[in-house]
Amino acid sequence: MEGSRSSAEMSPSLPPVKISAVTRNNSSVQLPGVQDNGECIAVKKLHPMPVLDDEEFKSEFSNLLRVKHQNTIPLVGYCHHTAQVLLEHNGKHVSARVEEIYLCSEYLEGGTLDKHLSNEPCALVWHTCYKIIKGICEGLHYLHKGFEYPIYHLELKPTKILLDNEMMPKIGGFGFSGFLDTTETFNTSEVMRTSLYMPPEYISKRQITPKFDVFSLGVIILQIMAGKESYPKCADIPPEEFIEPVYEFWVDRMQGTISKHTSHEVRTCIEIALSCVEFNRVKRPTINEIIQRLNKIDIVECSSIGELYKTEEFAFDFLKHITNGFSKKNIIGHGGYGIVYKGLLDNGEEIAVKKLHQMLWIEDEQFKNEVNNLMRVQHKNIVRLVGYCHHTSQIFVEHEGKHVSASVVERAICFEHKQGGSLDNQLSGMILLHLH
C-alpha cells in the first residue's frame, strides 16, 4: 500500500500498513494490517469489479464514509492503485491496465459471529446472545433508515457480522453488494451456504426489496437461538411446535434462574425470527417494526423503580413516552446542564428524567463510562441514579447550499424523584466534574 500519490489514492490519508494473515470471502481478500503507530486495521483487497468505474467507486466510498453507528463497521480509508504492464496476447505484447482496490476498516478482535455458531444453539450466555441480536437489528435499522436513501446489505450473514472485545456486534460488508456478481467467485458449496440467507422471491425471481435483509436477519437469529440447521427445520412445522422446544431449551440452560423479563426476551426473539422468514414477504415485519417490538421489552422491564434500577440504558422512545413527549407540563426543574421532567411509569410511580443540553466536548464512551461508575454510588443521603439514555439519529440539514447528513445526539439521566423539591444541578454536575 505504499507508492506515489500519482499511482494510488487514499482517503482519508493513512500511514503505511504492514499486512499479515489472509482470509477470503466472495468478493475480497481480508488482510489484518498493523500501522506504524501500532493500531490494527482490517484491509480488504477487492477482486476486480469491471462494472464499477473509478468515479462510481469513489462516489460509493464517499457515501459509505458517512455510515457511523455502534453496530456497523466504520471505514477509515481506501487505496485505489493502477499500473500499466506489458502482457503477451495472441503472440503480441499489449499494454494492460492493472487495478488494485483496498478498503480499510476498523479491525475487530472478536472475529465473526459465525465462529460462535454450530448445529446447536449458541453456547454464549443469553445476555450476550440478546446483546448480539439487538445490536444486529439496530445496525440494520440504521442502514435502512439512517439516510435519505436506504443502504441495503443483500449479503447479511454471520460471516459479515464481527464482534468487538466486548461482544458488541458490528455489521460489515455493506455498500458494494449491488456491484458484485457473487456467483462469479463462489464455488458450489459457497453458493449453497449463501443461498440459505436469501429470500425465496430473490432465488426464484431475483426480486430485491427492503424485506431481503429482514429475511436474512431472521435466519441469523434462528441460528443463534436454535443452531445453524434451524431454518430448514422450522419451515416444515407449525410455529408453536418450534417456539416451545427452543424456549424450553433456554429456560433449562439457565437452570430455573430465568426472570420474567429474560423469559420475554427469549420468546420475543424466537417470534421475531419466525416472522422474518415468512415465505410471503408482505407478512414479514419491517426493520422499524422489529426495533419497536424490542424497545417494548425495555418498557415492560421498567414497570417499577425496582426493575428500572436493574437496567443501565433506556430507549429514548421509552423516556419520551413516560414524560408525555418531554412536555412542558412535565417540567419540574431547570439547570445549567439540562431540563428535568417528571416521568410517570405505568404503575403510577414517578422518576425524574434530566434531558441534557448538547455537550460536544464530552465523548460518547466517556459519558457512558462515567454514568456507569456513578450508578454504583449507594448512600441514603445521595439521590440514586437509576439509568441513562444515549440516543443517536441521523437527519439531513442544509449547509452552505447543500444537504448534508448530521448526527443528533440525545442524552438523559434518570434518578429518583423526591417530592420535597429538586436536586437542581448537582447530579449532572457530578458527572461533568468527573469528565473534566
Describe the structure concisely for a colleague.
With about 425 residues, the protein is an alpha+beta fold.
Oligomer: single chain
- The assigned structural class equals alpha+beta
| Total number of domains | 3
Shape: globular
The CATH superfamily of the largest domain is known as: Transferase(Phosphotransferase) domain 1
Report the top-level CATH class of the largest domain.
Mainly Alpha
Number of strand segments: 14
Classify the helix fraction into a percent range.
Answer: 25-40%
Strand content of the residues, in percent? 15-25%
CATH topology of the largest domain: Transferase(Phosphotransferase), domain 1
**How much is the average pLDDT?**
77
In DSSP terms, counting alpha (H) and pi (I) runs of 4 or more, how many helices?
Answer: 13
Low-confidence stretches: 1-29, 178-192, 302-311
Largest β-sheet summary: 7 strands, antiparallel
Distance between the termini: 40 Å
Give the ordered list of helices and strands: EEEEEHEEHEEHHHHHHHHHEEEHEEH
